[in-house]
């Protein structure tokens, strides 16, 4: 993020990998996404798959887009729709948008099968999460990720030309991201994997950083809607603010705050 030290994505990637190799789940998530954005997709795939199997919505979103297009993984519209359904169910707004666009191409019978598969995925995710330690601390284990019943995504293989226009995939995941503007097209609406935004939710402010970390541990376990969001510890003088995000709009951030408040916690939306 360039906070306290010079911004250096190469160094960030190195430290993410070190943490991921020791079983830190959020580092695994971020490392896979960083590799994917750097177009090192074969390297990213095992990390994205591991994140997907435990229900990380950003990874489900990226992998679902890949299965729809058949570019870096095998084309599989049923799995694509199931993964996008899981990401949308966890309130990733881009996934909800892409799901609606997939409706234009995927037959209703396949969508129904995908919804059944999504339900199976959700149950598998719960089993994987139960076997792992989440939050801001590294897992107290060897770092191995339990394999679920869902078959792993394999590399892409040559396939016949599609009968519909392909949906363009792309990902924005950087230290200081900017949303990509929508480009109107009279013939198709591309699906884009946009994982960033200018809005966050603020969950508390503390004079002790450990209190902020402890609150995140508690919130992540008790509020399912927060799963997959990236926590941020923002320094302001002697105060540490606990924020999470990001969201493309204030309305999306306030929707998340509504879920947090319904669970009995404080929350406000903040623009970065």
Tell me what you see in this structure.
The relative contact order is 0.13. Helix 1 (9-21) packs across helix 2 (25-37) and helix 4 (57-69) packs antiparallel against helix 5. The chain is of the alpha+beta class. The chain has two domains: 9-159 and 170-175, Serine Threonine Protein Phosphatase 5, Tetratricopeptide repeat, CATH 1.25.40; 199-271, 2-Layer Sandwich (Alpha-Beta Plaits). The chain is built from nine helices and six strands; from the N terminus they run H-H-H-H-H-H-H-E-E-E-H-E-E-H-E. The chain has helices at residues 9-21, 25-37, 41-53, 57-69, 77-89, 93-102, 108-130, 209-222, 250-262, and strands at residues 171-172, 193-194, 199-206, 230-236, 239-247, 268-271. The strands form two sheets. A four-stranded antiparallel β-sheet has the order 4-5-3-6, with helices on one face. The model is unreliable at 134-195 (pLDDT under 50). 46% of the residues lie in helices and 12% in strands.
List the SSEs and their pairings.
Layout: H1 9-21, H2 25-37, H3 41-53, H4 57-69, H5 77-89, H6 93-102, H7 108-130, E1 171-172, E2 193-194, E3 199-206, H8 209-222, E4 230-236, E5 239-247, H9 250-262, E6 268-271
Parallel strand pairs: 1-2
Antiparallel strand pairs: 3-5, 3-6, 4-5
